[in-house]
Amino acid sequence: MLKQINFRFIFLLIVISILLGVFYNFLSPFGVKFIRENIELQYAEPNIDNDLDSLNSTANYNITPPSLIMTEAAYTLYNSKKILFIDARDQWDFDESHIKGSINIPEYKFDMNMPIVKALNKNFTFIVYCGDVECDVSKRLAVNLSEIGFNKIYILEGGVENWIANNYPMEP
Amino acid sequence: MFLLKNTYFLLIIRIILSIVFIISGIEKIANPSEFAQSIENYRLLPIFSINIFAIFLPWLELIAGMLLLFGIKIRENSMLITSLMMLFTTAVIIAIFRNLDIDCGCFGTLAAQKVGFRKVLENSVLICIGFILLFSKVQSSIELKN
Would you write out chain A's pLDDT as a tens digit for each of its 172 residues? Predict the structure, then answer.
């Protein structure tokens, strides 16, 4: 059976695909870099809660990349009631349980034109989270939000798993 | 067994497999950054190599799908498509066992689908179709000379 297959044709197809892909990527306005770079995140500075009032009330035109925030610091912000938590998991995980008061923007179907995204104030402070320390959807959603102009995005380190481990408020 | 030799059955499944790959290829070509992110989500490849695969894989899907649709080199394209499906399905299974909460990246932004056993089942059907075409005595409409 394998002797009847023209493997040179398959190899030629792969080569043509590579050439076409490279050529199209070079010309396309949506092309990507050939070498992908890793997104490095920094930890948020302590005492950020003191700056929340000014951050939430004035427009900050210096867009900063998302940074990680420890669970305890996030809880401090939670109690200040001046931030909003965004759950990046899918709606089924969110419906099962989520951080009290958070909203759901599933990362896998994120679109900048989603009504819930358009309704958010880009100058407000948000903390994005997902399941656990292995989960990456919160990081990706945070980057997506940052790229469309959300100025202050934090990513909850350890996700909802750490939040629950600390007995912090959940619902339902 | 009768179905496996039925010309019309083979034609229908060939069209189905072709269209799936053509649509998949077009969507990923239109949104390479999203497809690259989908590949990264699986955490199987080194970061620096991901965009390279995101650039050429959709074209391979598209070209193989179109050639299969027009009945050109059916066995070769069936083998290529089946191999790709087995590769993708393996990645999905690994993601399931690693409890990764990710989009499968199968159709780009056209249809968001999470990795799960349903996706494995869907892919398995396509793999079966690929094997049927590979081992059936189907005649290519155009046989390109070596």
Answer: 566 788 999 999 999 999 999 999 999 988 888 888 776 666 665 455 445 554 454 444 455 678 889 999 999 999 988 899 999 988 888 998 999 999 999 887 788 888 999 999 988 899 999 887 767 778 888 988 988 889 889 999 889 999 999 999 999 8
- B101, B134, B135, best to mutate vs chain A, most A CBs in 10 Å: B101
B38-57 residues touching A, CB cutoff 8 A: 40-41, 47-52, 54-57
The domain of B131 spans 2-135
Q: How many domains does chain B have?
A: 1
DSSP calls for A61-119: -SPPPPEEE-HHHHHHHHHHT-EEEEE-S-HHHHHH-EETT-EE--GGG--TT-HHHHT
| Residue in A closest to B31 by C-alpha | A30
Give pTM, 2 decimals: 0.69
In whole angstroms, what is the distance from residue B60 CA to residue B64 CA? 6
- Domains belonging to chain A, first-starting first, are 42-171 (3.40.250.10)
